Fold this protein.
Amino acid sequence: MVGFRAVIDAVSKRQIPVVGHNTLLDLAHIYAKFIGPMPDDIATFKSRFHEAFPTVYDTKQLAQTIPSLQVRPKLLVLVAKRRPQTQQ
């Protein structure tokens, strides 16, 4: 094992969760470089990718689908009020 291939193999072998933000293109790149040629359909891609990496978290998807993780507008207003004003 040489280079990043060793990292990919270790993550897969130990079934370490893969975590990223907006990761579809990243996962496709990992697949094409380390698993094999890209399949013709998404179902095959998902099945083969999850054989190598069974747990994948996309923080963008989580933030969009879990209401408690979504930023509330009131919170943004409070953060904006706490920031020091820059002089013009």
Q: What stands out?
A: The chain has a mean pLDDT of 87.
